[in-house]
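subagent[fold] <- orchestrator: predict structure for attached chain, return tokens only, no commentary.
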Amino acid sequence: MILDMGPMLRGEVDTIPVDYMLRPEPLQGIEFTADAHVVGKVTDTGGYMRLVLRADMPYRTICARCLDQVDGVYTVSFERTVAEEKSLTEEQIEDNVDEYIIVRDGQLDIDEQLVEEMILSFPTKFLCDDDCPGLCPKCGKQLKHGKCGCNTKEIDPRLAVLAKLLEESGDDE
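subagent[fold] -> orchestrator:
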């Protein structure tokens, strides 16, 4: 979204509301079930301009432990200091790229940095429940539906030779 910053730069308004829909970038293993709803505002307090946004992204993915479907809404908070292009040097902009969003020719393009923030902050794994026990490593049954009956006692492979010796010595007696 491109905001016309002219009224704020001329001192006519001290707040510009933001409310629009944004299509999230596709991410591997994530289905966005609707566009992200972006709300917020640009405020000017005595020449100090600040952009504050919140983006709500409805998603669908699978649980990282049990492979069940997980639906939810992920929220990203986004804040930047708004500065006119001529007020900062290129070095200041490059050194503080995560602090500033630049007004160019009276226009403020918020999508590029917002989409980048959405991608970088989105979790890589989701759980259907914080206590999800996952799948049985032997049979693959979802353990949240109950135990599967598989033998969970594992013999350390380093001690398997000793177990074999004990079996052999037990046969002789």
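orchestrator: received. Logging for downstream: The radius of gyration is 27 Å. The mean pLDDT is 86.
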